[in-house]
Amino acid sequence: MIEKNNMYKEYLIFYIHIFIILAIFSMCVFIPVKYIKYIFFIPLLLSSQWVIFSECIINKCHPNLNNELTDIINKLSPNTYKYIKNKYTSNEIVRLNAHFVNFINILMLTFLTFRVIFNINFI
């Protein structure tokens, strides 16, 4: 019964992560340009919390959960997951995840900046 509760907790936290990511991406794409100045700090906060805590704060609240990016890789491509597990230590995997998330955040900031500079509205 305890394993089943942990499994539900893992799925809940995974879906919370997915919801947050989709919400931020949709804000970057669909929000009008005049409101971007109010949400521009969100990717900066996400990047800084990854640098400070070396992982997502949601994962820090539940330290018994596995690293979720490598779990996604395991579900999509088990061979790639085995390669990553054999090649990198767990600390290096956490750093790789942090670099990936920071890359996505910088990409979002760049996208928002171009939208503001060129006044691009998608709606």
Fold and architecture overview:
The chain is mostly helical. It has one domain (2-118). The protein has seven helices and no strands. Helix 3 (41-53) runs antiparallel to helix 7 (90-118) and helix 5 crosses helix 6. The radius of gyration is 17 Å and the shape is elongated. The mean pLDDT is 77.
Name the features:
single chain; elongated
Order of helices and strands: HHHHHHH
Shape: elongated
Number of strands: 0
**Structural class by SSE content:** mainly alpha
Structure annotation, total helices: 7
Spans of at least 5 consecutive residues with low confidence: none
What is the residue-averaged pLDDT? 77
Radius of gyration: 17 Å
Helicity, as a percent range: over 70%
User: What is the distance, rounded to the nearest whole angstrom, between the alpha carbons of the first and last residues?
Assistant: 48 Å
Instruction: Estimate what percentage of residues fall within beta strands.
Output: under 5%
The biggest beta sheet reads: none
> How many discrete domains?
1
Q: Secondary structure elements and their pairing?
A:
Blueprint: H1 2-30, H2 36-39, H3 41-53, H4 57-61, H5 68-76, H6 78-87, H7 90-118
